[in-house]
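Per your request, structure below.
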């Protein structure tokens, strides 16, 4: 395959400092992998904080734009793209230029806000949903993380399926099993054994099923005392979860850490007896992949995209099967052999998800959109 000159791609630089950890992980994994392909492609960050953009990556300062996310996407981003002379804009998280002379590739990780607006009862959510919908329809092509999300996007926005490409995420090489380089100590107050959940505490994450299952499993005499550690920002359900634990006469069973550092996250994955992931809706489920890469057994919902990521490497359960969750938790805590088998299968499964593959599939889309395939 020959190319007459380098393809020049501008990626929205705000993604490197996004308040959403998943978006930061996405751009921070994708961009270095694109550069490592050794292909004739230049990547330039369009705006964003100069301190957040990786060293050595070209960057264009943000031109004037109305001081809002909509103002940036509608005015600032296309102006920055024109200034940078790029062939393609990559908007890595839901919002994209509504009008631009340069074609846009837009990544939509999921459309839970559109398919289940009851989970997002915020004053401005209708405006956000309209903005996301318009961005999706204006994009030349949409990338998403799973077949599940591709179907959801097509249904939500009436976008032809051929305008959507599934590009699974990769897992950072920082996520490795115990015995590799030190990850640092566990956060203060965390002792083994414990179950772990990673991600914002949100209604769609269905965490009450795990708290109730934990309370049931803790009553079994054969199990040591254990806790559920929640690592993520509380989006309004933490009080209810703590009330469940208190009502079950086990207020100490739940530990809400909030945001954790990367080193703490790695230590938590490595130290956990299992990751529990009872979510009802995910576009991908990156914590499932990160846990597998650390050799941590995974118990997760048979819902949305999660089976695509976990495969047969862990335990998949109906998100409402309380007794099943309690039984699975008890088994993983008491059965060392089962835990070892799950760990081995998870490591093998995680090895299939590389950022190099993500980068290659993404570059193919850039080229198609820019009309540079020869």
């Amino acid at each position: 395959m020959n190319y007459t000159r380098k393809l020049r791609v501008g990626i929205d630089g705000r993604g490197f400092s996004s308040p959403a950890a998943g978006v930061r992980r996405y751009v921070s994994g994708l961009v270095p992998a694109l550069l490592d392909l050794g292909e004739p492609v230049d990547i330039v960050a369009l705006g964003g904080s100069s301190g957040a953009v990786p060293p050595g990556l070209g960057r264009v300062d943000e031109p004037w734009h109305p001081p809002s996310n909509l103002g940036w996407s509608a005015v600032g981003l296309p102006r920055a793209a024109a200034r940078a002379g790029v062939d393609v804009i990559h908007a890595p998280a839901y919002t994209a230029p509504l009008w631009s002379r340069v074609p846009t590739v837009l990544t939509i990780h999921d459309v839970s806000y559109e398919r289940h607006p009851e989970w997002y009862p915020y004053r401005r959510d209708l405006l956000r949903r309209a903005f996301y919908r318009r961005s999706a329809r204006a994009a030349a092509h949409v990338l998403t993380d799973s077949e599940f999300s591709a179907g959801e996007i097509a249904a939500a926005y009436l976008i032809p399926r051929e305008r959507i490409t599934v590009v699974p995420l990769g897992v950072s090489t920082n996520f490795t099993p115990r015995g590799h380089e030190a990850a640092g100590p566990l956060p203060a107050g965390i002792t083994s054994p414990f179950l772990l959940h990673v991600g914002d505490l949100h209604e769609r994450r269905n965490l009450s099923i795990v708290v109730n299952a934990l309370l049931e499993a803790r009553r079994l005499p054969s199990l040591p005392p254990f806790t559920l550690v929640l690592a993520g920002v509380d989006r309004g359900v933490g009080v209810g979860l703590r009330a469940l634990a208190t009502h079950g006469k086990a207020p100490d069973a739940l530990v809400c850490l909030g945001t954790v550092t990367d080193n703490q996250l790695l230590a938590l994955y490595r130290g956990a007896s299992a990751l529990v992931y009872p979510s009802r809706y995910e576009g991908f489920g990156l914590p499932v992949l990160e846990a597998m890469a650390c050799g941590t057994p995974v118990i997760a919902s048979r819902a949305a995209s999660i089976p695509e990521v976990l495969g047969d490497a862990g335990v998949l359960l109906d998100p409402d099967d309380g007794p099943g969750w309690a039984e699975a938790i008890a088994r993983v805590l008491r059965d060392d052999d089962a835990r070892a088998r799950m760990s081995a299968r998870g490591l093998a499964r995680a090895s299939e998800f590389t950022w190099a593959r993500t980068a290659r599939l993404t570059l193919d889309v850039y080229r198609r959109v820019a009309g540079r395939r020869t």
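The first strand starts at residue 7 and ends at 12.

Regards,
D.
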